[in-house]
Amino acid sequence: MGQTIKTSGFSNWKPSQLPDLAGKTYVITGANSGIGYEAARMLGERGGDIIMVCRSRAKAETAQAKLLENVKGSVKFILMDLSDLSSVRKAAEELRGGVTRIDALINNAGVMMTPQEKTVDGFDLQMGANHLGHFLWTGLLIDLVEAAAGRVVALSSIAHKSKALNLDDLMTEEGYTPTKAYTQSKLANLMFVFELDRRLSASGSKAIAIACHPGYTDTNLQSTGPAGFMKFGLAVLNKFGAQRPEAGAIPTVLATAGKEAQRGAYYGPTGIMEVRGPVSDAKVAAHALDREKQAKLWEMSETLVGHTWGLAPSEEAA
Asked: Which of 58, 83, 91, 164 is the most exposed place for a label (fewest CB within 10 A)?
């Protein structure tokens, strides 16, 4: 289901194709474990400087020490809770005090299939942390990405194909299920990137935006978010069907620093049902390409987080 939206010219991209990344700065949310950690490791091994953005100081320090054993670049961290907009603003201010440019802002962190819960700002936890937190984070730092002619990278999911975005119930108030709220949030991630890239292009910005998905990858998401039978079921599926985080991180690394990556593209595994396999152009559900909804989501998100980007929409932008 779905269609590829780019023809990038490769069928099986590998991290070995990365160029030398010395002197480049990569900011990764949720970099202390799973896909985020593996992406940080691969980018750092090629010389990139890594700034991990994590909720837990203890986990960040542990990951930092482990990364420093293997990477060529520097590894630093700042603390941020994506489900708390005041924390996002504080972390963005702290980051701005330490860097003047960002070569890629990688929106990797998130929560998955949690029981119904509200953030401190009153949003659904999954939409709040996965989409709105990253929307504000990116908006507060986009000028530093622009300064590097860099990239905004967002992780979506094959789950985005499930159902069209319901803008009349963005917080999944009606008929909440953990899966429904999760799929809506990951669809929002994808639609945000497509809208962002068009707006950047229309404004003449040197920055670009790219989306990716990790297929079905064994990470902490499946054990820390779901509850009850769902948690048990995912544990079984992970054991027999999931790929390792180092494989799941390849699309992120491609989108972040691959010379072959194109703006406005969507990358991921291309095997059966896209759960694993060679990394190339992934398929996008038709409902994710609704430009009217993308623009409306953008406007709603600006209002909800209280931040106006100042990037005008453009139907003519490719």
From this structure: 58
